Amino acid sequence: MVTVASRAELERLLEDDVPHGDLTTEALGIGAVSGVMRFSARAPMVLALVEDAAAIIEFAGASVELLASSGAALVQGAPILEARGPAAALLRSWKVAQTLIEIWSGVATETRAIVDAARAASPRIAVACTRKNIPGTKRFAAAAVKAGGAVMHRLGLSETVLVFPEHRAFLGDVPLFQVVERLRVSAPEKKIVIEVTTKEGALAAAVAGLDVIQAEKFTPDDIASLVQRIAAMAYRSTRPIIAAAGGVNAGNAAAYARAGADLLVTSAPYLAKPNDVQVRIAAAGVKAPGLIEVA
User: Fold this and answer.
1) Any idea where the Quinolinate phosphoribosyl transferase N-terminal domain is (predicted)?
2) pLDDT (0 to 100) of residue 285
């Protein structure tokens, strides 16, 4: 079972929720009683981070059988995992494991919705999610995006060259072609990406030889017009990649794909509602109908 986070990172999540023991379980004196805990999908969902959730349960002292893997599209009621062990282990790990799956499966499910909508209109289009996730959660965010069928746009500032208007504000009147030349010398193995907010800026970037033009908050009609204009530039041997960014979601992904964008850049999945995971817990030997459902 391969996890996204390290053992130490996952153990810290558990420690954060149970820093000094489980007071209720200890006070009731039920910690040694053997039990079973089952997770299932309460509604259709794309599963994410289940391996990390299972590891958390195992760290707490229970054994886990995974019944589905990250990236799986689950129907309502589909089983996710079953854990067995002492009540102390099950109750200690239950909520952290459940919440981890719910939050990141929500991201994966929304990602898959965008990917499916876009590829229904353009099967070869790529969808990339930005780095605008909650600070400190990048490992989980990237894994959830992957489970949903997309890729990360950029994992951080150290990874790619992306010139924003905010960078150009410090360059004064330096012509764009000179900016490109400087970047080709400084980072010769990297593609040069630029964010533009107007069609004129996009055309200027194409003339200057940028590899990727990230069109920020363009409408699908604007993207279609830009693609046509750039395709007509006979003096370019290879046209730049056109990325539609800003406001891209499952509702408009198909329109951007039909407009001719090569890439959709989005942050929408990070705002997705968590998926509801049903959890049932019982003492060992109790038949399934007697399992107690917990929130």
Assistant:
1) 22-103
2) 75
